[in-house]
Amino acid sequence: MIFPRKNPFVENKDRPESYYSLVEDTEGFAVFDIGSNTIKFLAARQKRDNTIEFLLHQSFTTRLAEGLFFTGELSPEAIYRTLDILSLLRRQADELGLRSRIAAATSAVRDSKNRKYFLKKAEEILGHKILLLSGDDEAKIIYRGVCSDPLLQGQASPLTVVDVGGGSSEWIQGKEKTPEYFLSLPLGAIRIRDRFVRGYPVGTKTVARMLLCLEKQLQDPLREIKGGCQKVMGTGGTISTMANIFQQSSKEDFLKTHLFSMDTDSIQKKIEELAHYDLEQLSTVPGLPLNRVEIIIPGMAVVFATLSVLGSATLVSSIRGLRYGLLDLLVTEKLQVG
User: Fold this and answer.
1) 178 and 116 housed in the same domain
2) Whether residue 95 is found in the same domain as residue 162
3) Nearest 10 degrees: CA dihedral of 223, 226, 231, 236?
4) Structure pTM?
5) Is residue 257 part of a domain?
6) What is the tens place of the pLDDT at every residue in 212-245?
7) Is the dihedral of CA 338, 57, 171, 66 positive or negative?
């Protein structure tokens, strides 16, 4: 499908950002993560020694969940933006010769009344089926992605993970690669914004009400993973953006973002600071991209409420979220077939 109109919602979509250099390998993989706020793409190759080389690591904001909280449906504009990007990424995967592919849709699609229509159109563009993940499956695959990091292999203590997306957030705890507790709730950054934010500056009173409601909502569900959870691993766009803000990065730097630590007190102070900014001021914050100025405070509120309920002192950012879990599924399946 060719879209005749330019998509103004996406910046620099024709300039992929290289993560690692292209290499000559035996097998190529493409992962399409259709999220509520962003479409994430991961390209990788399996070398002859079966090791995985990451080629491209990209994110495009399409706000698929825009207005979903009020209407229960994906809007025509949000569908157009998302299909536009999927068309671009399909062409990119074709050009790279990535034969093994997997695509998954999450909260916005599974919660929408018109999900069948969207999935039909998206599958026509990609040329293959799209997995519609349940909240539990999304949580398990996120955990699988985080655990695929070689730097986290062999840890004896339980690993606790939070992923703050646009439509939903997930909480997982487990040991090694086995999730023992997992939870998905419709508490993504876009939904929290639609629920609480009426203007900018957001204001400290709104932030206080937001945090109080979130902490009350999380108390019972997170009770099972409270014990001794001093450090939490975080994935998703909100948390990677937080890492960029604290490092004042001029642009997203995956190598700097990955495994960057943030303490709870600093996160609280940053939320309080940002609550006084209007949209123009938010747009000048180092490390905060324009496409996240409206949702960064709600997203950070979910993070802080999580740390508060769990009694955790530290959040560690990881880039290895859902798309890395999907890649691990794809590679494992290929090895089993082979």
Assistant:
1) no
2) no
3) -10
4) 0.90
5) yes
6) 999 999 999 998 886 667 789 999 999 999 999 9
7) negative
